[in-house]
Amino acid sequence: MSASENIRIGICGLGTVGGGTLELLQSNRDEITARLGKEVVVTHVATRTPKPDLTAEIPATGTDLLALANDPQVDIVVETIGGCELAFDLVAAALKNGKHVVTANKALIAERGNELFAIADEQGVTLAFESSVAAGIPIIKALREGLAANEIDWLAGIINGTGNFIMTEMAEKQRQFADVLKEAQALGYAEADPTFDVEGIDAAHKLTIMASIAFGIPLQFSKTYTEGISHITPEDISYADELGYCIKHLGIAQRSDKGVEMRVHPTLLGKSRLLASVNGVGNAVLVSGNKVGSTMYYGPGAGAEATASAVVADIIDIARQQAAGASQPVYPGLGYRNTRNDLSVLAIEDITAEYYLRIPAVDKVGVMAKISSVLQAQSISIEAVIQKEPTSESVPIVILTHSVVEKNLDQAIAALEALDEVTGKITRIRVEPFHGEAA
Fold it and tell me: Can you tell me the distance from the alpha carbon of 161 to that of 301, in angstroms, rounded to the nearest whole number?
């Protein structure tokens, strides 16, 4: 790609993101050309769902993805087909052929990125992935460039719009999870199979990527703890509110003397915290650096236009690097020349946190004393208690604990559930104080 040549793009996949990328390149062509001094031209499209209205001006349109990756007339391959197996073969082939690749595929990066970045490094080409995390929010650039002078202490995000919409509706209207999920599907916010969204898998892919950039560690999706929101009830939201909290489905990564935590789960969050005000389908990521303090990045985390905006931004970055004569990518892989292997990822039972417990118990004298005794045996101290009127034959006892190692809490919950006075499963939700963020 010389300074005088146009930039030739091949798009693989013409669904929501691929189609949005093509439309953006066409509609904002003059602006992009003015910024680069050369034109970005889509010369090839490979798709199994042809859209003649979008591809009428494209010289080569077909169905063979790997043929596009091998075509010498393509400078940058844009991968938007999703999934892992075929996408991996496509991206690996393009990189091995010396082509730069832009992908919106969070699962591919989180699960196979270590292999792909190694290929890109060998070939001296760029694998760009800004659009894989939080779509229109430039969080990858913020972590890799804007905050490059900082040690990142922790980051936390609302990084799935479907889950945030559901939690917002449940909180504002006291609706049940299943009811709001049906509405989210009807509105197009949730897929027919919502598992990736509501069980936290989508968020875990994104968190894995951000944690790797923040802490300089290899991608380790299999070690990211993942918990969904389907067990959260309006009652839990109401009790949390009474205690001064809201409940958000968060992805949290933080570094401590013991290692790195990577976890996605429902979280009690103080109402004055920045993330507490992020509602609906919005996404936001809060990052704490050791010099800059806490900064937050908010915006649309999904959708054709927002994701395409990030895809095209990566195309422009690659074109600028080439125009400047960079012989190697300015930001290789995750932004580190060498990833760190001295930071281990903690298992969830080894983290230390505060906790919300909802304990269904019989309504009789002495029950609270027994519960307190079990907690005390595991060195768990109580910060606050709510005890409501009996519902049928049981009464919900809600407890906030001080900080405790999770495996100690696991033992306490097992002992509590073994009590004759406890009538069912105990609900446990982690509480996050976010030290270092101004309340």
Answer: 7
Q: Does residue 206 have an active-site annotation?
A: yes
How long, in residues, is the chain?
Answer: 439
Residues 6+ apart with CB under 8 A from 362: 393, 394, 395, 421, 423
- Domains (range + CATH), the chain: 7-135+304-323 (3.40.50.720), 141-299 (3.30.360.10), 351-432 (3.30.70.260)
Which burial class, exposed, middle or buried, applies to 2 when counting CB atoms under 10 A from its CB (0-12, 13-18, 19+)?
exposed
Q: What is the structure's pLDDT at 335?
A: 76
Least Cα distance to 375 among 402, 347, 348 occurs for: 402
- Token pair 């909290």: residue: 245
Nearest CA among 167, 276, 293 for reference residue 230: 167
E strands in 87-141: 100-103, 127-128
pLDDT in tens, 259-301: 999 999 999 999 999 999 999 999 999 999 999 999 999 998 8
Burial degree of 122 (CB within 10 A; 0-12, 13-18, 19+): exposed
The answer to whether the beta carbons of residues 65 and 86 sit under 8 Å apart is yes
**Cα separations in angstroms, 150 against 114, 141, 253:** 23, 14, 16
The C-alpha atoms of residue 42 and residue 55 are separated, in whole angstroms, by 9
Total Cβ atoms within 10 A of residue 183: 14
Instruction: Give 375-415 as a DSSP string.
Output: HHHTT--EEEEEEPPPBTTEEEEEEEE--EEHHHHHHHHHH
Q: How far apart are CA 201 and CA 193, in angstroms?
A: 13
Question: Measured in whole angstroms, how far is the alpha carbon of residue 382 from the centre of its chain?
Answer: 32
Among 338, 361, 355, smallest CA distance to 399 is for: 355
Which contiguous run of DSSP H or E holds residue 167?
A: helix 161-173
Looking at the chain, the whole-number percentage of residues with pLDDT higher than 70 is 96
What are the pLDDT digits (tens) for 202-219?
999 999 999 999 999 999
- What is this structure's pTM? 0.94
Residue with token string 């919409």: 165
Of residues 45, 84, 50, the one with CA closest to residue 65: 45
Which residues have CB under 8 Å from 157's CB, separation 6+? 134, 139, 203, 206, 207, 210, 250, 251, 275, 283, 284, 285, 286
Is the C-alpha dihedral spanning 160, 166, 170, 171 positive or negative?
positive
**List 96, 206, 258, 291, catalytic entry:** 206
Q: Are 163 and 171 in contact (CB under 8 A)?
A: no
